[in-house]
UniProtKB/TrEMBL annotation:
A Gene Ontology BP annotation from the UniProt entry: methylation
Name of this chain's protein: carnosine N-methyltransferase
InterPro entries: CARME, SAM-dependent_MTases_sf
Signal peptide start-end: none
Length: 397
C-alpha cells in the first residue's frame, strides 16, 4: 500500500493496542481502584461515637470481609489476564486479544497506575455482567429479555424446512459475554455475535472455567444483610461448550457494529438480528437501523428488546468534548424504521431487569422495554423462501 496508507494503518493499529492496554490496565488495577470506597467505610466508622460503634460491633468484620471479596475478584481478573500473552501458546487467546497484557504494561509505563473513573466503573460492570449472563442467580433476569427474544425467534422460524442445508443465521449485535449467542445456537440456529468493548471481549474469551466472584461487594446501600452484600456467585452456571452442538454454528466478530456490518460482504447475510439492550448504544440509532436492514435477507427479522437510555447522551461529562448522540422517542424510532421499509410484525411493552441485584431493597435497574419484531419485506415475506431470493434495494449506507 502507499506509504501514507501504511502510516495510517500503523497509527490505527497502535490506537487499537492502546485501547486494549487501557482496558487491561483498568482490570489489573480493579482492587486498588475500589479500595478508596472501602477506606471511606472505615473512615466513617471511625467518626462514630463509641456508643454508636457499640451498636454495630460487626462492622469492622464486615469491612474486612468486603476486602477479601474484592481480593478474590482480583484473583479472577488476574487469572483471566494471564491468558492473554503476546507470542504465547497458540490457541489460548484470540490473536486480536493476545497482546492485552503487554499492551497494559506499555499503557502503565506511559500513564502510571492511574485508572480513569469511568474505566473503573466498567471493571465493576464486568463483574455484574458475568453474574447476569453466566450464573444461576442471573437466570430470572435473562428470562425477561433473552427468553422473550428466543421464543420469538422460535416462533418466527417454526416453518424453516427440516431438510434445509443450513439452519437460520442470526446476528447478535452488542453480544456482551455471549450468553445470548450460545442460547441461540443451542436452540438450533447459527449465530454470529458482535461486540465492541474490550472489557466484554476479554472476559467472554476467558469464561470457560469455574470461578466464584462477588459482584455486589462494592455496594453498601439497600442491602438486606451482610451475607447478601458479600455473597459469592458461581460462574459459569453451564459450560459454554455444552450449548454448541457442532462446529461452525457460532462465531464472534470484534469491532464497531456500524463499521463492521456496513461492509458489502454482510449484505443480506442473516435471516434475523437479535438485539437485546442494544439499539440505544448507538451514537445514531438511525444508522443502526440502516445497517441492520443491510445485513438482513429479504423476509428476515429484527427482534429487539430494550429501553432508550442512549448511552452517549452524557458522554461529554466523562470523555470531554461533544459526542454525537441522536436521542429519539420510541415513536420516532418506529416511524424511522417503517420509513426505511421495515414492516411491523409485533409490538409490546414489557418489564426486564438489567444488572439488577435480585436481593437488593431497591430494584432500580428494571426497565419498561420496547419488545418488537420488524420484518424486511421479501418476495413471500418469509425467511425460508426469501433466503435464496434477490435482495431488495436497501436504504443507503
Amino acid at each position: 500500500m502507499p506509504p501514507n496508507d501504511a502510516d495510517k494503518q500503523m497509527d490505527a493499529d497502535q490506537e487499537e493496542r492502546q485501547a486494549l492496554g487501557r482496558v487491561a490496565h483498568a482490570l489489573r488495577h480493579y482492587r486498588s481502584g475500589v479500595e478508596p470506597e472501602v477506606a471511606r467505610w472505615e473512615r466513617n466508622l471511625s467518626l462514630l461515637s463509641p456508643q454508636h460503634r457499640a451498636l454495630v460491633p460487626r462492622l469492622p468484620e464486615k469491612i474486612a470481609a468486603a476486602r477479601q471479596c474484592i481480593y478474590r475478584n482480583q484473583l479472577f481478573i488476574n487469572a483471566m489476564l494471564s491468558m492473554f500473552v503476546e507470542d504465547g501458546e497458540e490457541g489460548l487467546a484470540p490473536p486480536h486479544l493476545a497482546p492485552a497484557s503487554a499492551a497494559a504494561d506499555e499503557y502503565e509505563a506511559a500513564v502510571g497506575g492511574t485508572v480513569a473513573p469511568h474505566d473503573l466503573d466498567k471493571a465493576r460492570y464486568v463483574l455484574k455482567n458475568i453474574a447476569r449472563d453466566w450464573s444461576e442467580e442471573g437466570a430470572a433476569e435473562r428470562a425477561q429479555s433473552y427468553g422473550r427474544i428466543l421464543r420469538e425467534l422460535r416462533r418466527l422460524f417454526a416453518g424453516w424446512p427440516a431438510g434445509a442445508a443450513e439452519p437460520p443465521s442470526v446476528l447478535v449485535p452488542g453480544a456482551g459475554l455471549a450468553r445470548l449467542c450460545l442460547e441461540v445456537v443451542d436452540m438450533g440456529f447459527q449465530a454470529q455475535g458482535n461486540e465492541f468493548s474490550y472489557f466484554m471481549l476479554l472476559t467472554s474469551a476467558y469464561l470457560l472455567n469455574g470461578w466464584t466472584i462477588h459482584p455486589w461487594c462494592h455496594n453498601s446501600c439497600n442491602q438486606l444483610s451482610t451475607d447478601d452484600q458479600l455473597r459469592g456467585v458461581q460462574v459459569p452456571d453451564v459450560h459454554p461448550a455444552a450449548l454448541v452442538p457442532g462446529p461452525g454454528l457460532l462465531s464472534m466478530s470484534a469491532g464497531d457494529f456500524g463499521e463492521v456490518y456496513r461492509q458489502p460482504e454482510y449484505a443480506a447475510a442473516f435471516d434475523a438480528v437479535a438485539a437485546c439492550f442494544f439499539l440505544d448504544t448507538a451514537h445514531n440509532v438511525l444508522e443502526y437501523l440502516e445497517v441492520i436492514w443491510h445485513t438482513l435477507r429479504p423476509g428476515g427479522y429484527l427482534v429487539s428488546l430494550g429501553p432508550l437510555l442512549y448511552h452517549w447522551a452524557d458522554a461529554r461529562s466523562y470523555l470531554g468534548g461533544e459526542q454525537l448522540s441522536v436521542e429519539l422517542s420510541l415513536e420516532e424510532v418506529k416511524a424511522a424504521a417503517l420509513a426505511l421499509g421495515f414492516r411491523l410484525v409485533r409490538e409490546e411493552m414489557v418489564e426486564a431487569g438489567f444488572l439488577a441485584n435480585p436481593r437488593s431493597m431497591m430494584q432500580a435497574s428494571t426497565y419498561r422495554c420496547a419488545f418488537w419484531t420488524l420484518q424486511k419485506p421479501g418476495a413471500d415475506a418469509g425467511p425460508a423462501t426469501a433466503a435464496g431470493g434477490q435482495q431488495e434495494s436497501a436504504p443507503p449506507l
